[in-house]
Structures are given as C-alpha cells and as structure tokens.
Amino acid sequence: MASEPQDLDSETFKAFRQGSQEAAGRIVDLYHLRLYYFARHFTRDRELAEDAVQESFIELLRQRSKIGSHTKVGSWLFTLVRRKVARHIERGAGRREMPVGDDMPETPLAPDQQRGMLESGRHRVLDNALQAASDDDREVLVLKFFCGMKVREIADLLSIPQGTAGVRIARSLTRLRSWFETEGMSLEDLLDE
After folding, report:
1. Nearest Cα to 81, choosing from 174, 143, 166?
2. Are 127 and 118 in contact (CB under 8 A)?
C-alpha cells in the first residue's frame, strides 16, 4: 500500500541536481503514483496519463538545474503534468470514458482509508463521484485527498491565494457530499466503513 506522502529532503535534491541516479529514482518513487493518479483522473486513459507523467519526469531531468528549491519539485511536477494533460485534452486525446472494472492504482490516502476502500471496492464509487464532478472540483479534491497536497501547495500549483484554495476545496466537498446524497449515500459513511 502507498504510504502517506512525504516531502523531498534537501540532501536528495542536492544529489539529484548533481546528477545522482539514485536521487532521481527517489524523486520518481516519491511522486510517480500521485502524479499518475492526478493525470488519470483527467485523461481517463492509462497510457495518456503515463505519457504525461513520463514526459514530466524527462523534463525534470532536463531542467534540474533551474529548479531553485527542493520544496518546489512536487509543485513543479504537478504543474507540468497538469499542462501536459491539458494539451492532450485540447487535442482531443484525453477525457475518455474509463472502462468498467478499470482499477485505479493504490492512492496516497490515509492507510486506514486506503485499506477499507481498496478491500471493499468503495474506491469505484468515489471515483464515479469524482468523474461526475466538474473539472475544477475534481482537480482540487484529487490534489487534496488523493495526492496528499496541503492547501498551500494546491494554491501554489493553481496560482491562487491560499484562502481561495481552501474555499474551493470546501465548496467542492459540499458538492461532492450533495452528489452522494442524491445517490442515497454519504461520503463520510463511504470513508468510515
């Protein structure tokens, strides 16, 4: 199971900037699953999501000397993936319907939530709810609850004030709860079971 998201430490970042393959591997290990899950929610296509993530890691390798701080690597990668996904969607290559039974990877939810959702299949219900959400709602919810980003990080990624990001998350959660209510379910029950 995926663990709680961790931050990139400055020593790993320094080694990465100096060309360390091991440090590059650590960065991939740290961000790959979250980036893939983020991209997958918008492309609805495994290959397109994986392409966007791979292209972003390649760009990170090319631009490693231009990233000023280890705390910005995650935001930088999410921004790249977001742009690449948007290009795929603009070209008509993205936003396909997910085939029934097409499981998403394990997600960086809290371990107790992961276990329950993955064991019972509840992740499909939540995924269906997210697919019914607007792109803006889905984006902040996936970033917050599946990618483990803090409100500050989401604000940085979306280039909006932190307060605005917090409001977007709260409003998106309200709309998600409403979707569950119209389906005769409760989001909290889904996560607590």
Report:
1. 143
2. no
Both 96 and 1 in one domain: the answer is yes
Confidence (pTM):
0.68
Domain end marker among 100, 122, 155 = 100
Q: Per the structure, how many domains does the chain have?
A: 2
Ranges of residues in the chain with a pLDDT under 70 are 1-7, 70-71, 93-123, 190-193
Residues 37 and 122 in one domain: no
Report the alpha-carbon angle 177-160-176, nearest 5.
Answer: 5
State whether 43 and 26 are in the same domain.
yes
> Nearest-CA neighbor of 145 among 40, 30, 1, 5?
5
Dist CA 106 CA 139 (whole Å)? 18
Angle, helices 46-63 vs 21-43, to 10°: value is 140
Q: What tokens does 25 get?
A: 């591997």
CB 53 within 8 A of CB 35: yes
Whichever domain contains 57, its CATH number is 1.10.1740.10
Q: Output the CA angle 73-165-108, nearest 5 degrees.
A: 55
